[in-house]
Amino acid sequence: MCKVSWCDKKDRFYKNGNPKTYCSTHIQYKKYAANASRRPWLMYKVEKIVDIELECELCGYSAHHHFKDRPTEQLAGLFDVDHIDPGLKMKEGYEDPSNYQLVCKQCHILKSYDAGDFIPKKYKK
Fold first, then answer.
1. Phi-psi category of 9—alpha, beta or left, where left has phi over 0 and alpha has psi -120 to 50?
2. How far is residue 93's CA from residue 75's CA, in Å, rounded to a whole number?
3. Which of 42, 89, 93, 123 is the most buried (most CB within 10 A)?
């Protein structure tokens, strides 16, 4: 089974005859989302990239529409995975797609600003 908690794929990726801990979809994290093995929300980004769904879930911005000649690997950097409820980030049982959304950099910056994410926790009320 795949190491990604919400993935139910039973296929396993093999390299040089050795089984890996990710399915054939999520093994692509090395290409699209460095360090995703330690940041589970990036596996959501990998799923969106593989399904060619590079579209902001807030404003609808489509990278493929604006940059038709660019490869997906380059366009993936234009998006972030946002935690819909940031209070659940890294809490056991809440790191799954129901708390994620793929957003463009601009929407992510503005959402973070509105939420006061730039304020250190010790100063938040």
1. beta
2. 30
3. 42
For 21-43, how does the pLDDT look when each residue is reduced to its tens digit (9 = 90+)? 788 888 888 777 777 767 888 88
For the segment 61-87, the average pLDDT, to the nearest whole number, is: 89
How far apart (Å, rounded) are the C-alpha atoms in residues 45 and 105? 13
- Identify the burial level of 44 via C-beta atoms within 10 angstroms of its C-beta, where 0-12 means exposed, 13-18 middle and 19 or more buried: buried
- pTM, entire model: 0.77
Give the tokens for residue 110: 């503005």
Alpha carbons 12 and 23: distance in angstroms, whole number? 5
Query: 11 in a domain, yes or no?
Result: no
Contact of 55 with 62, CB cutoff 8 Å: yes
Distance from C-alpha of 17 to C-alpha of 3, rounded to nearest angstrom: 18
Assigned domain for 23 exists = no
pLDDT of 53 > 90? The answer is no
With respect to residue 29, please indicate whether it lies within any of the assigned structural domains. no
